[in-house]
Amino acid sequence: xxxxxxxxxxxGGTKIAGALVDGGGRLLLRARxxxxxxxxxxxxxxxxxxxxxELTGSLPWTRVTAVGIGSAGPVDASAGTVSPVNVPxxxxxxxxxxxxxxxxxLPVTLVGDGVAMAAAEHWQGAARGCRNALCLVxxxxxxxxxxxxxxxxxxxxxxxxxxxxxxxxxxxxxCPCGGRGCVExxxxxxxxxxxxxxxxxxxxxxxxxxxxxxxxxxHRGDPxxxxxxxxxxxxxAAGIAATAxxxxxxxxxxxxxxxxxxxxxxxxxRRHLREYATLSFVRxxxxxxxxxxxxxxxxxxxxxxRLGGRGTAEAVVGGRPS
Length: 322
Ligand SMILES: [Zn+2]
Description:
Layout: E1 5-11, E2 15-21, E3 27-34, H1 41-56, E4 64-71, E5 75-76, E6 81-82, H2 95-102, E7 108-112, H3 113-124, E8 133-138, E9 142-148, E10 151-153, H4 183-187, H5 189-198, H6 211-219, H7 223-247, E11 251-255, H8 263-276, E12 286-289, H9 296-310, H10 313-316
Helix pairs in contact: 1-2, 3-9, 5-6, 5-7, 6-7, 7-8
Bound molecules: zinc ion.
C-alpha cells in the first residue's frame, strides 16, 4: 500500500512524541524525546527535529501524505504558531513552517492538544458516532475540544472547547491565564492534591503527594481525599453543564491522568451534572471515560492531519476505521 499514512506529532511540556499512523488509527512507528522545556527556542526545535528525523528516515516514510501536530497551548493554527504555557522559549514560535521545511513541504495541520484529544476520541474512542460532544483532558491542566454536527470544531485558532479556562467561581482564585475561578484552578491534578493537603490529608510513607495518591486515599475512604475529588467533580460538572446549554452536547468524554481515578471522580461528576444540567435539552447529557489513553495526542494529531490534508473533516475524522 502507498500513500496511506500520516505523520503525527504530540508536543507537550514534558515530552515530544511522534508516530506514523495508518488509516485505521494504528501507530506503526514511534519516536520520542524529552522536551527541553526550559531551554531556548532552537533547542526545543532540535528535539522536534530529532523526532521527525527518526520518522523521515524510516522506510515507510514514502507512504506519508500529511503531517498533523497536536501541541500544548495556546496555539494559533491560523498563523501556524505555538506559545505553550510550559515552554517559555516558544512564544509565537513558527512551528508549522519549521516542520513543513523538515518534511519536504507536505501539508501540515496544527491543533491544540484539547482539540487533538477530541479528534482522537471522535475517530477511535468514546465519542465515535457522536454528533455533538465535549472531550475533556483532566491532567496537570484541564483542556478540551468539541465535536459539533459530527465534525471536530477547532475554531479559528485551534483552541475551541478549552473548558479549563471558563470561570465557574466568579470571585475565585486568580488563574495563571489572567482570569479568575477557572475550572482548571479547581479540577486539575495539582489543584486536587493542593486542596487535599491544605485540608489535612497526608501522604503515605512514600511521600507521594500527587493526585493519583489522593485518588488512592479516596478509594480507601479518606474523607478529605474524597472531598477534594468531589470539589473537582463539581467544577467539571458546572463547565460541562454550561457547554451543554450553549451547544447541546450529547456526551462529555473525560480523559487525562486524573480521569484514571475512576469512580471517585466519575460518581460525583455524574451526580453534580444532574444538579447543574436541569433543562430538558441538557438533562440527558452523559459522562463517559475516554478510550484512547496515552496515545490520544498522537491519534488526534493523525486525525487532524487527515482532516487538514484533504479538507473533508466529516468523511475522515467522523468516519469509521477501516
Ligand atoms: Zn484560567
